[in-house]
From TrEMBL:
The chain crosses the membrane at residues 6-26. Keywords: Membrane, Transmembrane, Transmembrane helix. The keyword Transmembrane applies. This is Secreted protein. It comes from the Bacteria. It comes from Streptomyces flavidovirens.
Amino acid sequence: MDSGWLAVWPIGAFILGGVATQWTGWLNHRRLRAEKAADGIAVQQQRREEFELAHLVEVNQLLRRATEAVRQLDTTFSLYGKRKQDETLTSEHQQELADALEGFRGAVDAVDAQLGFVLADEVREAAGAARDALDAAFARIVTDESVSWRPFEVVMANAYERLSARVREIYAGQPSLPTRFGSASRA
């Protein structure tokens, strides 16, 4: 009987070794597949953040250009009206007004083109409110009404702060930390 067991042990050890090898290979395959999936998620998250950062910065810059354009339009329109009233209007003045109008329209069109790419709803809403404030200022300028710049600046400052806060969140990898006053931290 001892000689029978001597023949079975090598066969049993061979089978157990094969099973162990297959099981190890299967575990390694699962681990690699999980790592690949995690890497894919990390790459997708990184791409999303890069996309969002690029558009947040761009919308911020475009809103600032549009603000400069609406202020330039206000100045140009006021001067145009004074010159028209004084009867000192020239074709240069008309061209200045046309250029200011074109500059404003171009700046607002650029904001409109990028606004939809802002992913965070609250940030997009703040930027949309800033865009609406630009329209309201434009409407008052072209109807010869004075623009209330303080409310305009408050809306624009809110949009800039929301854009900046979201950029900080992305760079920090976490939501903005509340200050002791309960609002997002200002940097």
